[in-house]
Specification:
Helices cover 0% and strands 49% of the residues. The strands form 2 sheets. The protein has a 6-stranded mixed sheet, with no helix packed on it. Strands 1-3-8-7 form a 4-stranded antiparallel sheet, with no helix packed on it. A hairpin with a 4-residue loop joins strand 7 and strand 8. 27% of the residues are buried.
Length: 114
């Protein structure tokens, strides 16, 4: 059974950077894993993933500020945010970016303040 564990969430000030990590256990690789976020009162949305060719893909409002990194030696997928904004406050999750999803992990909270 695949388990997803997100970590790295923190309270940061706008403009600061942070890095989230997703550990994938019970699977031979972290292929097909993307990052989602859920802002208060909103639905969960996919924000970063890899294309079938291995190119990173981001939602428009995050492009240029975040980067996704996959480490197959650690079976993990990280999300780097280089310039946090107030609107990045959310709970961040990782999961498959298509098809049948795995059971959700607990997520990791990111809070950005001014």
């Amino acid at each position: 059974q695949v388990q997803l564990v997100e970590s790295g969430g923190a309270s940061v000030r706008a403009g600061e950077s942070l890095r989230l990590s997703c550990e994938v256990s019970g699977s031979s690789s972290a292929d097909g894993i993307g990052w989602y976020r859920q802002r208060a009162g909103q639905s969960r949305e996919l924000i970063a993933r890899y294309s079938i060719l291995g190119d990173p893909i981001y939602v428009d409002f995050l492009r240029g500020r975040v980067a996704i990194f996959k480490d197959n030696t650690k079976n993990s997928v990280d999300l780097q945010n280089d310039k946090a904004r107030l609107e990045d406050t959310a709970v961040y999750y990782c999961n498959r970016d298509s098809g049948r999803l795995y059971a959700w992990g607990q997520g990791t909270q990111v809070t950005v303040s001014s």
